[in-house]
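Input for the complex:
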Amino acid sequence: MSATKQDVRSRDTLGASALRPDGVAKVTGAFSFSSDMWAENMLWGATLRSPHPYARIISIDTTPALLISGVSAVLTAQDVPGKATYGLISADQPVFASEYVRYMGEPVAIVAADHPETCRRALEAIIVNYEVLTPVVDPELAMLSSTELIHPDGNLIRHQHIVHGDPNAASDITVEGNYTIGMQDQAFLGLEAAMAFPDSGGNGVELHIATQWLHEDRGQIAACLALPEENVRLVLGGVGGAFGAREDISLQVHCCLLALRTGKPIKMQYSREESFFGHVHRHPAKIWMKHHATKDGKIVKIESRMVFDGGAYTSTSPAVLINGITHTQGPYQCDNAIVDGYAVRTNNPPCGAMRGFGVVQACFAHESQMDLLAAACGLSPVDVRLKNAMRTGDKLITGQTVESVAPVERCIRETDAIPMPEPMSQKANVLEFPGGSGRTADRHNIIRGVGWGVSIKNLMYSEGFDDYATARCTLSDGVASLKFATSEVGQGFVTLAPQIARSVLGIDEVVLETSDTQIGSAGSTSASRQTWMSGGAVDGACRLVRERLFEHVGKLHNIDPIRLMVENTDIIDTVGTFRISVSDATQGITISETFEHHHRKTEDLDENGQGNCHVAFAFVAHRAVVDVDVELGLVKVVQIATAQDVGRVLNPLSAIGQLEGGIAQGLGLAVMEEIIMDNGRVKNPSFTDYLLPTALDAPRVVAIMIEEPEPQAPLGAKGIGEPPCISVTPAIVAAIRSATGKALLRVPVRPQDICL
Amino acid sequence: MNDPIGNEMYSLHVNGQDRAVMDAWVGESLLYVLRERLGLPGAKGACEQGECGSCTVLMDGDAVCSCLVMAATAVGSEIVTVEGLVEQNPTMAVTAHAITSQVTDVQQAFITEGGVQCGFCTPGLIVAVHHLLDKNPDPTELEVKESISGNICRCTGYGRIFAAVEAVVQVRKANS
Amino acid sequence: MTVAIPLTISEALDALSSNPDARLIQGGTDMMVEINFNHLKPHNIIALRRIKELRTWTKNTDGSITIGAGVPYQEMETGELKQLVPALAEAARTVGSPQIRAAGTLGGNLGTCSPAGDGLPVLFAVDAVVHLQSNEVSRQLSIHDFMLGVKRNARNANEIITAVTIPVLNGWQGYTKVGVRNAMVISVASACLAVDKPTKSVRIALGAVGPTIIRCRDAESWLTQQFDLSTSTKIELDLAKEFGRRVALESKPIDDHRSTAEYRRHAVSVLAQRLITRAYPS
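Predicted:
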C-alpha cells in the first residue's frame, strides 16, 4: 500500500506520525537489548533441560560439573530458598523439576561459569537418572477419569459451560465442522535474556530483563527467592518483541538465584532452540462447532465444544479458554448458544499467551462456519456476514451487552470496497508465484482464490481482574518527564507517551525515565491494553499536572484557573487576552503527579457462563487473495485487504505497522507456522524448520482504519495490536478453499492438505 | 578430554581498525567475538544458523551471517558492522530527525518510514539494504524483496521496510 | 588447538598432513551450525576460504567447466556460469538466503553431503566429477561414487575437495525445489532435469527423497524409448505425466517433520512432469 505517513506536522502531538525516540539507537546498533548487557566480572548462566516429556527423576549428580574449571555454581530444586513453584494464574510450575519432569525441555538444573562453552560442558557433565514414563499427550485422553494425573492439581485445568437463550431453539439449516489449530510460536527475534546484579549483602538483587510485565515478574521472583518484594528491583532491558511469550517467567528466577549464589553479575540468554522450550506457545485446539440458522442465513443458535491443550503447566490457560469460548459467535448476533470449553493439562509444552489469546482459535472455527453457512443458504461470504453483523447494544452469548462502538458492518463494507489486486501479469516473475525461488510452478498451474474473515476481540483483562496502569508526569522548565513501568516491546508506547504529554501540556520536549519497578505497576503489555491503560495513566497524570499548572498561573496572574486552557504551546485565557508559553510558565517550578488508570470493573462468569466478563471490544474484517499451486499445494498470499475498527488513530505510522505486522503473523499460522509434536517431543525447535514469513511471503496490505472514537477509552483509541492477526488466518484459508475446493479444517494448511 | 577454552589469539580488521582478540575459543563465531569480545553488539543473534539475518555484517564486501563465520578464520578480511556504516559511507550520512546523531540515509529512512519496531532485526536489515543499494542502486520491488529475504522481521510484516528502501532509492536518484 | 588459514592448496594439504584430525571449513554455513548447536566441538581447523585456487572456475578444452570448491553460490546465479549450467544457477538461487549464497559453496555441499543439499541434484544430473587431492595423489571420482549416504562421502581424511567438473550439455536443463515458503527454505523435495540432445539422453536427479540423491535411470531410459529427445519440441501431457509417475517410483522418501513420504512422492512426480514439459513446451 502507499505510505500512510501524514505530512509532518509542526508538533508531534496525538494524531501525528511521531517518530520512535529509540529509532536512532535501534538503527545504529546502539540500542541495548537485554542480550547486549555486559558487566565487569560477569558470569554466564545456562540451563539443563529434560530430554523427556515425562519422567521421574531418580537422582541428580552435579559434582562432575562443579569439578570443571571455570564453573562457579550448579543449582537444582533443593537450592530454591522460597516458593518452589510459580505461575501467572496458578503457581503450579516448578522453578526446577524435582520429582517429575512433565514436558520436554523442563529446567532441571542451572550452572554459572566463565564462558558459554564452559556452561555447555558443565551441563553435559551433570548426571540425571530418569525413569522414563509414557507421556499423556492427547487432551481428550488426559481428561478421562481413568487417566493418571500427571500433576497433583489434576489434568483438567478448567472447564466452563455457557448456556444462553433457548438451548432448544429450532432452525431450518445446520452446518457443522471439526477444526484443528496447530501450536504456533511467538518467535520474537530477541531471545530471552537477562542480567542479574546481586546486592552486596546478598539480600537483594537487581534484574535487567526483557519482559512484558515487570511487577508481575517481581512478585513471582521474590516469592521464589524468599525475599521481600522491595529487595527485588526489576529494570526493563531492551525487548526484542514479545507477542505474549514474555508474560510467563522463563529465566528470571534462575538468573537471580545464580547471582545471589555466586555474588557476581549473571548473564543468561537462551539460544533459539532453547527459546522454543523456554516459553509458552499458542494453544493447539480442537473445536467442534455447529451453527443453526434460518434458511435465509440468520444465525439462530450455536453449539460448540472447544478443547485447548494447555501443556504441562497452567500459565494463562484458564483465561485463554474463557477468551476462546466467549468469542464463539464471532462478531455476529446470536441469541442462543450452548458451549463447553476445556483447558487440559498434558505432557506437551506449556501453552499460554500469544497475540489473539484464545480468540484466534475460536475465530478460525466461526469464520469457517460462516462460509459453510453462506454456501448452505446460497449467500455470498460478504452477505452472510452483513446479515448477522453485530451492532452496539447487541448481547454476547455471555449475556453481556456490547457497549463498545461496533462498526462491524462498516468494517466489512469498507474492506469489500478495496479494489481487488490485478490478475497475475503475463510477465509475472517466478518469485511472485507460489513456491517462489524454488521455481516449482508455471503460470498455468496457479489458481487464484478469495476468502473472508471477520473478528471480534476483547480488549484488556477480564473476569473481575483489577487491571490498572500507573504513570507519573513531572513538569519543570518546559520539559515533561514521564515515568511508568510499561514494557516497550516494540509496539511504540515510547512514541505514544510523549505525544500524549505534548497534547495535554503544550510542551515539546518530553523525557522518558527508565521503566522499572520504582513506580506502581503498568500491567502487562498484552491484551491490546497499553494504549488504553498506560496511555490513560499518562494522560491522567499529565492532566493532573496541567490542572496544577493552571492553578499556579492563575494565582500568579490573578485569573480563575477554570478560564485557562492550552493552545498549541501556550496557556491562554479563554475569555481574555492573557497568553504565556508553557515553557515560560514553568520556569523554576516543578509539578509532579502520579495517576493510576483503572478500567471499568468486570465480573466472573457464573456456572452457565453468564456475566459481564469483558471490558470492551474491537472489530476487524480481512479479505485475502491467494494464488495456489493446486497440484503441489503451495500458496502465495497476494493481497490482504482490511478495515479495522481502531477508535482513533493516535499515530498513523505506528498503527499501520501494527496492522501489517499482525497480518504477517496470521499469515504464518495460516500456511507455515507450527511447532510439530511427536509424542510429547518437539520436532522442529529451530528457524530451519519452524518457518516464519520472509519478505517474499509478505502480501500487499491495503488497510483502512475506521475511526469512531470509543467513549470508554481515555484517548478514544481502541487497542489495535491483536485484531490484525486474528481473522486474517481464516480469510487466507477460505481463499485457499475457494481456489481448491478442499475443506481444509486445520491450520496451518500444509501442502499435502491441499494436493493429496 | 576437554580442550581448555581460551588459548587463541588473533587480530580482526573491523570497521577500519585492527582489533586484537585474546584468549578466544576456536569455535567462537564472528558474531560472538564482535559482541562479547570487541564491544560491538550491533549485530544480533537470533537463530545461530543463518536463518534470520539479524547478525548480518559485511565481509570483504559481501553481506554474510556473522553467526556462520568462524571468527578465527576471518583474519585478513575487511569486516564492517552496523556500527561502522556511517564512517564507511560518509557521503550518505545525514542528521537524524530531531536528534543530532549521524546516521546513514538508510538508517534515517528506517526511522522515518516506520521500518523499526522492536528493532532486533534492524541492524542486520540495515547492513543488507546498504549492501543491496551499493550493488544495485535502482532495484525493482522483487529485487528488494529477494535481497532481504534472508532477514526475518517478526514485528512489521515488512511493509514499512519496503517503504524505507523505496524512500532511499528515490532520494538517492534525486540527488544524483 | 589451532586454526590454519592456508593461502594455497599445497599449504592446506601440509596443514592437513600435520594435523590429520583437523576439520576443513569452507564457507562455514554447515559447520558453524553444528558448532553453534553444540553438536561439534572442533579441535583443529583448516579454513579454506582464502585459497584463491579454490575460488575460481575454468572452461576446459573438452567444453566442460571446472568450478573450484570455494566458489560461492552467488557467483553461479548470474553471468557466464548461468549461461553454461542454467540448472546450477537455478539451484544456487534457492540456497538459503543471499547471505548464505555469499558464503556457501559446492565444496561445502559435497563435504556435508546432505540429501537436501541444493547443488547436489544438479551434479548428479550432469554426471559431475569431484576432484580430490591429498599430499600424495590427486584423484577424480564420479559424483555417483562420491556421495555414499546421508552425510557420508568417499573423501579420505587426508584429502581436500578441490573442484567439480561439470560437462556442459547441449539441451534444456532446469532445477526445481519444493519448500513451504517462498524464499530461504530447506528442500522438502527437489529435482534437476537435464537433456543432452547429441546423446539423446535425459537425466533426472532427485533431492531430499532418499538417503542420497537419486538418479531415476529407469524413467530416463523409458522416456528415451518413447520420445526423440533430440528432435522433438513438445511433449504430450500424458507422456509427461507417465514420466512423472515413473520418476516417483524411483524415489525413496520418508516421513519426517518437514513433510510426509506420500507428499514427497507426489511432489517429485509433479516436478518431473513440469520439468520435462519445460524442456519440451511446444
